[in-house]
């Protein structure tokens, strides 16, 4: 007869209940130390990795957009140089910059302005293209350095939507409101609600507008970045007497 094998089963009375911490075997100090060291090392590695991502992400995006822009602009004149047998990277990009500069000089003249006006008149008569052109022109005019042609005159802070809350906006024009109490100067303040191309227009008393020491470009950066580029301190500008460029609204009898 084959010898019976000894039973290696554990009695039910001695079985370890995983849900009962009183019956679980005690862990050794070395095991607890290893787990603590692993947790600290994992936390340190994850923090340093995220720090590296935060530092390298804007650098990578900047280089990618810059490289794409150079290749895009270089592609306008590089095929022309390729037909001439000249293969120098960046030559088309430099040619494009010179071309833009010459166009600026030409448009500044009377003849160039007239030709540009005729071309703009023709584009505005096209069904679909006129909307794209008008939107792109408004954006370029808004960030233009020429204060006479810029759509955004100043950065403004107004009390909106309730007392104690403020909103960033841009002063676009001013009007004179005639009432029984007298004339009141109102500024048209554009408050973007979706980056820059969608927003609300508020008519606010010029004396109630806070004009911070921010340029138009800084104001656009604050709105586009969702407030992440907000400076730590904002001071209002001194009230400088400005020329009256307002538009008088006639009161309806």
TrEMBL record:
Region (Disordered): 1-32
Keywords: Membrane, Transmembrane, Transmembrane helix
GO CC aspect terms: Golgi apparatus
Transmembrane feature ranges: 49-70, 90-118
Keyword Transmembrane helix among record annotations: yes
Protein name: Protein LIKE COV 2
């Amino acid at each position: 007869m084959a010898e019976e094998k000894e039973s290696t089963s554990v009695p039910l009375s001695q079985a370890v209940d995983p849900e009962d911490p009183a019956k679980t075997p005690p862990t050794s100090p070395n095991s607890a130390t290893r787990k603590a060291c692993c947790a600290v090392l994992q936390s340190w590695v994850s923090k340093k990795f995220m720090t590296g991502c935060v530092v390298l992400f804007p650098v990578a995006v900047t280089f990618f957009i810059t490289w794409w822009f150079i290749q895009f602009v270089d592609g306008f004149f590089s095929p022309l140089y390729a037909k001439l047998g000249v293969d120098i990277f960046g030559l088309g990009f430099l040619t494009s910059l010179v071309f833009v500069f010459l166009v600026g000089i030409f448009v500044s003249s009377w003849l160039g302005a007239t030709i540009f006006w005729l071309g703009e008149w023709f584009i505005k008569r096209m069904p679909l293209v006129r909307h794209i052109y008008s939107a792109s022109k408004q954006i370029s005019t808004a960030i233009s350095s020429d204060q006479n042609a810029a759509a955004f005159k100043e950065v403004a802070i107004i009390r909106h939507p309730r007392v104690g809350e403020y909103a960033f906006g841009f002063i676009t024009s001013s009007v004179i409101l005639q009432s029984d109490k007298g004339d009141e100067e109102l500024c048209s303040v554009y408050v973007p609600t979706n980056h820059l191309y969608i927003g609300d227009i508020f008519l606010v008393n010029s004396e109630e507008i806070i004009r911070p020491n921010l340029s138009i470009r800084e104001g656009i950066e604050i709105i586009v970045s969702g407030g992440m580029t907000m400076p730590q301190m904002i001071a209002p500008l001194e009230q400088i007497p400005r020329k009256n460029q307002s538009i008088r609204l006639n009161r309806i009898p």
